[in-house]
Design a protein that fits this description.
binds P-hydroxybenzoic acid; 6-stranded mixed β-sheet; globular
């Protein structure tokens, strides 16, 4: 080999090495993308704000590199309109090539995305929506929020033992409301109580006044309410304005109505309201105390609600799955690694049931009380490891 050929060969191999180096670096650095679709504006905006804050907190606490992969969050605002959710999910899968779809503030948004998750084999982590049937809409759905049947039954067991036999139900007229109405009613009747009237209010721009007037005239022992997160304060206000409490009608419901995002502004009239739910910011565990403190610190004192916990735990499920695949990802491998996860959430111990891909968790009975000058849902009883009763 003459000198010239030698130099040429050396340059060639140097270039090749550099090229190979570049491509392996590029491979290793290709981000793991999470498409987070949330209602950041519109009627459900508080859900978007809470989940985004929780997801960012999880990343700040756990780093943004897992198994050598940089984790990238791509946030999209669907304004809680399912047609928009569907379009955004499609774009995230096709254009951004996301590894996971996550978020979903309301049931219709989760349902609209399910066929896209199935077709593209992309895990869809539902962090908020809570109609029982959602997980059956795609084998790629995993849920970290809760279901309405899961939390409603406990209250129907508690009520008749506490002097509440005659109940009127008032629910938002769509998936989760219909689930809450059905499971509460069936269990109450089983326990010897009765639902004298089942009222349904529209999801969009509801006016509770005419419904509440009707309830007042019927004089039940209690009014059972489900409205989605963000609408509870309006119900509470009109309930009190109409003097329903003074007329001897108790307000009970799922914890969505005494939502931690709004509870502290509801005023003393909320004191004593009993609800059943899977999360309270006042849950007395060290893990929750740490979570509430860190969340507040990162968000100007904002109190996390049950939506935030669904988002925080959803990020954990994704991170742990990515870790298990050694940073490789892949829809089916991620999904397999999400199933069966057991961990301690700020809400208490949780489990992602491998069969149903739904969350198994404790359900708490809580009463609104004042603690350190602030209103909280204080837990007074617990039903452990509750599976969604909608899936038998
Ligand atoms: C739902 O649409 O599934 C949903 C939204 C808000 C809630 C509960 C359920 O608080």
């Amino acid at each position: 080999m003459n000198k010239r050929t030698l130099v040429k060969t050396a340059i060639c191999s140097a270039v090749l090495t550099a090229l190979a180096g570049t491509s392996s670096v590029a491979m290793a650095q290709e981000a793991f993308k999470i498409g987070l679709i949330l209602p950041m504006t519109g009627q459900q905006a508080s859900t978007g704000r809470q989940i985004e804050a929780a997801a960012r907190l999880y990343m700040a606490q756990n780093g943004d590199t897992i198994g050598g992969r940089k984790v990238q969050l791509i946030l999209k605002d669907d304004t809680s309109l399912p047609d928009v959710t569907r379009r955004l999910a499609q774009e995230l899968v096709v254009n951004d090539k996301v590894d996971v779809l996550a978020g979903f503030g309301i049931t219709p948004s989760a349902m609209a995305t399910a066929p896209i998750a199935t077709q593209s084999k992309t895990p869809q982590v539902v962090m908020a929506a809570a109609t029982s049937s959602i997980t059956q809409a795609s084998p790629y759905i995993v849920r970290t929020s809760f279901t309405l049947p899961q939390v409603s039954v406990a209250l129907a067991d508690w009520a008749p033992k506490n002097g509440i036999k005659k109940v009127v139900t008032l629910v938002s007229d769509y998936g989760p409301g219909i689930d809450a109405e059905k499971y509460f009613k069936e269990r109450l009747i089983f326990n010897g109580g009765q639902v004298t009237e089942a009222l349904r209010v529209p999801l969009r721009n509801p006016d509770f006044a005419p419904f509440l007037q009707k309830v007042r005239d019927g004089k039940p022992d209690a009014l059972f309410v489900f409205v989605p997160s963000g609408a509870g304060a309006a119900v509470m206000k009109q309930f009190l304005e109409r003097g329903m409490d003074k007329a001897g009608i108790k307000l009970i419901g799922t914890g969505d109505v005494t939502d931690d995002d709004q509870l502290n502004d509801m005023g003393e009239g909320a004191l004593g309201v009993v609800t059943s739910h899977h999360y309270s910011a006042a849950h007395p565990s060290p893990a929750n105390k740490k979570f509430v403190e860190a969340f507040g610190k990162a968000n100007k004192g904002l109190r996390p609600n049950f939506m935030a916990v669904g988002g925080y735990d959803g990020m954990r499920v994704i991170y742990e799955a990515l870790k298990k695949t050694g940073g490789k990802g892949g829809g089916d491998a991620l999904l397999a690694a999400m199933k069966g996860q057991i961990f301690e959430s700020p809400r208490g111990p949780v489990f992602i049931d491998a069969q149903t891909r739904d969350i198994v968790q404790n359900v708490y009975l809580r009463k609104v009380e004042k603690k350190d000058g602030q209103l909280y849902n204080v837990e007074f009883d617990v039903i452990k490891d509750v599976k969604d009763p909608g899936k038998n």
